[in-house]
Amino acid sequence: MAIYVLVCPSCHVVNKVLENSFLNAPLCSACDTKLLSALPIEADEKLFHHVINHSTLPVMVTFWASWSGRSHEMAEAVSSFAVLFQQDAVFLRINSKQEQVLANTYKLVDIPTFILFKSGVEYHRVQGGIGERELHAWLERYLRVKRKKQPHHHSSV
Asked: Which Pfam families match (predicted)?
């Protein structure tokens, strides 16, 4: 049985969780917060590094900006994907204007930028004008999700 390491989105404690407990919404050992968030987690640089360096689930990071209309258009889709892929990845949101060190470190050329990390290392990214369907297909492909096809309801953005 697989054991996963998850960082609590509330108190940031590192927790070890059995995979079969994912269906029962595992709770943080320190503060009883759900470890598998149904919403993207707003993260600063410190939390970002903590999550990507400790989580054994892949981490999908959205770099966004308040001035980017496309960021706002994709926000609802990303939130729905955080629910759909809740047991497959951790979803973080980084405000690229507030976290300019991270934006520079990852050499963002367009906003929004979506980056997948595994074991603390970037392994794929897409940026800018990607649409909701393309982002869904990208997540399916790179998270290597083997699930029954479920109807995907597009947001009314």
From this structure: Thioredoxin (PF00085)
- The model's pTM is 0.88
Cα 39 → chain centroid = 9
The full set of domains in the chain, from first to last, is 1-36 (2.30.30.380), 38-157 (3.40.30.10)
14's CB contacts (< 8 A; 6+ apart) are 5, 6, 7, 8, 54
Q: At 77, give phi and psi (nearest 5°).
A: -65, -45
Q: What is the CA radius of gyration of the chain?
A: 15
pLDDT score for 2:
85
Mean pLDDT per segment of 10 residues, for the chain of length 157 residues?
90 92 89 92 96 95 94 93 93 96 93 95 89 94 65 48
3-state secondary structure of 122: strand
Chain centre distance of CA 66: 19
- Listed in order, strand segments (DSSP E) in 10-146 are 14-18, 41-42, 59-64, 90-95, 113-118, 121-127
